Amino acid sequence: MPHSRPSSFKIFVLGNGSLLDEGISDMLIPHSQLNVTRITYTDDRTLYDLVNFEHPYAVFISEFDTLDLERVVSLIFSVPASCVRGVIVVHDETSELDVYYKPSTDAPVTTYRRKSIVVNTKEEFIDLALRVSSYA
Hints:
Shape: globular
Helix content: 25-40%
Structural class: alpha/beta
Number of helices: 4
């Protein structure tokens, strides 16, 4: 039986409560297919539980100093009940985003396929969120 596409995609915006987090959320919230929740990173266990219970399709991470991105990406993809299809890292100084795609196998993976993408407009940013959320 083919999987049907959901009417909306749950998106997490993970950060440290900065203006960048707010800007990411503000760009995504108005789109009717995106259900956006801002989350302030506190610790790995809390993040793991949120991903496990809330089932986001994509996680945006605003890059900030104290976060080990590789560890957090691995943690997000390790959640067994996760629907997460990709993690998008927003760099605070450029328009380049790094997209980590969830592996297609259930085998433990220590490195993930990463693609750097430059977005120049709000529409490109929203399109990226939709593409990553629906990636299979």
